[in-house]
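Reopening: structure tokens for the 2-acetamido-2-deoxy-beta-D-glucopyranose complex, inputs below.
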Amino acid sequence: MFCVILHFNSHLHKCMFVAALFMICEGFLVKGPSGPLIVPLGSSVVLPCYVDDPLPLKGLKVIWVRTDANTLVHVFQDYESRPDAQYQDYHDRAHFFTDKIKHGNFSLRLENVRAEDKGFYRCKVYTEQESDETLIQIKSVEHLMVSGSNHPVSAYVGEDITLNCFADSHIPPEEIDEVSWRKTDKNEIIQVLVFEKNKIIPADERYRHRVDFFTAEIPKGNFSLRLKSVRTEDKGVYMCQVFAGNFSANTTAVLEQLGFSVLHIIVLILCIAASGSAAAVCSVVSKTKIIKHN
Ligand SMILES: *[C@@H]1O[C@H](CO)[C@@H](O)[C@H](O)[C@H]1NC(C)=O
Ligand SMILES: *[C@@H]1O[C@H](CO)[C@@H](O)[C@H](O)[C@H]1NC(C)=O
Ligand SMILES: *[C@@H]1O[C@H](CO)[C@@H](O)[C@H](O)[C@H]1NC(C)=O
Ligand SMILES: *[C@@H]1O[C@H](CO)[C@@H](O)[C@H](O)[C@H]1NC(C)=O
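Re-run output (same inputs, fresh job):
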């Protein structure tokens, strides 16, 4: 019971109140990832499971179980990992970071992820006194994963910017059929730049000569877009869509409110000032002319 309370408030375990409990319960909290995991097919994934303060190795036992299939994924007991206990599906695919266990890191590395690996995993940690656990979900195993940047990009007019788009590296580049960057506006979809069958296809008039891929990065699956000399009307949402075999995935990048740089403003003021004096000169000249005419 006290242990349960301790799990919800790790500060408690240092307080006198607990010391008075004859140290029956040391209290540790097993932590996992902040949310479900989405993993690329064929990749390696780390299923996090850890405690903040290392636990004594004596009597330590860590059991990883696939809860939906009720199979043993991996076991650490008597100072070592026990692959003999593993369910055959995980032989040579699921590993502890053995040297990290003494630091309280019981994470599991699962290699060559398959579609069937989708599901729930429980990491249960036992000390001589007590136990705690965390549940981890592999929510989906994706054939193709495309990522970008989570933050909007903001820029000044005239600047060069990069919009990120990265296809996971487990797809060989030669299997990527097409990558298209499009600007999706309210009423219109503008083709910004397309990569198809290893060729870069010229963009919409509005973007021509201003956009490009980083060609040296393409073999790495990096299809980030270089947009040069940004204009106010470039503001908006850009989608990078990748097609490989029967699969397609996308990411979006937002180009935010564009401002004018200090330099722009100074130049603008100078222009206004200049045109002001030009106007003055003009009016003087024209008046002079008018006088002459008269
Ligand atoms: C546990 O160790 C693995 C391998 O070094 C590392 O990737 C992971 O970030 C570690 N987790 C924590 C919580 O330190
Ligand atoms: C892709 O390439 C661009 C330009 O070199 C770089 O800024 C970006 O970090 C790269 N993205 C990845 C995921 O490597
Ligand atoms: C794509 O779909 C076709 C027809 O559904 C199928 O025969 C083929 O194996 C699929 N290719 C891949 C790479 O999944
Ligand atoms: C973009 O990807 C999301 C899922 O990440 C999907 O729901 C959406 O339909 C995709 N959009 C296009 C145009 O393919």
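The pocket of 2-acetamido-2-deoxy-beta-D-glucopyranose (ligand 4) is lined by residues 241, 248, 250 (CB under 6 Å). The first helix runs from residue 2 to 8. Marking as resolved unless the reporter disagrees.
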